What does this fold into?
Amino acid sequence: MKQNSHAAPPHTSDKRLRPVTGRHNARLKELRMAFRRGELTAGGNCAIEGVKLIEEALRHAQRADAVFFAESARPLAEKLLPQIGERTETLILPNALFKSVVPSDAPQGVAALVKLRAFSVAEIIERSADGPLVVGAGLQDPGNLGTILRSAEAFGAAGVLLTEGTVSPYNPKVLRGSAGSIFRMPFARTGAGELIVQLRSRGVRLVATSSHKGTPPAEANWTLPVAIFIGNEGAGLPREILHQMDETVVIPQAKPVESLNAGVAASIVLYEAARKNLQLVICDL
It folds into this structure.
């Protein structure tokens, strides 16, 4: 029988997407575990989902080990596959199986296992002449940490350091809240005591934020190098850390308001530090 010479060539996705139908596929189990724990897997991967976040990861040279598509997202796969390296596994799942793995209530049909660039604490402190450092000390709300990462990038911070008791930066809500800044903003985890010793040895000033008393941000000394400590949402900074600060900054607010959201407070303080140290560029939103 003569073949139709005008038949359409197979889609790129038909050639590259490997079907996965069982829950026990090794890559799928790794993705599920990474989402559930909000931590790196044994292979050093973190799990991300959503079109924007995955496009940001691919755009900024993060290595993707595997990308997963829901069956209903085949058109999206056609769009993204040219951006995905040939060595990256690309898999397609039945819609119900995909939805059972990702944490979002309204999944967009794409998820991935990616490796983020790792920075040492020393590398980040080395950058402190270029912008303020942000220290998350006991932050527990993932939305707050995501906001802080995003604001840190927006206002020219040199890096983010996370001490014990702080939510994992690989938590899905942190990753989503960062809106892609997680892929560009250097961050590292460390102990508070060790960190303060390292900062002191490099001549970095230590500034605490407080909801009770201190210097208004506009009057504070933001001369670089400086590290801005953001404490726990409810308890603030531990007393032993607070006593080692060079200055405490408080944001004036109306009397009925007890305190600001940690992400909002950090953003205000970072803006003020940037206003004093950098020339901010107005961009279209």
Q: What stands out?
A: The chain has a mean pLDDT of 90. DSSP finds eleven helices and eleven strands in the chain. The domain at 121-277 is CATH 3.40.1280.10 (Alpha/beta knot). The radius of gyration is 22 Å.
